[in-house]
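User: Please look over both lines:
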Amino acid sequence: MQTGQPNVEERTTEDPIYDITQALHDVSGTLIGAVGMDLAPQPIQGRDTVVARGLENLQDLEARIPSKNRLYENPSTP
């Protein structure tokens, strides 16, 4: 996580899914944790395309997190 590069567990014959773990930031760029995602490649997609899709998913998620405190806030509390 300190390098900013995703950690990618390659797919295998037993598990054809890429397991990608990336640093998670809030909208201001503050590191707040890590997020893991399991992504299946489409028929003609290679590793680089799947990792790029993971980064796009991460950026969409980060754009919705105003802060770590807000992320863990209980929405049912006033």
Observations:
- The chain has a mean pLDDT of 90.
- The two ends are 34 Å apart (CA to CA).
- Residues 47-62 form the longest helix (16 residues).
- Residues 7-71 form one domain.
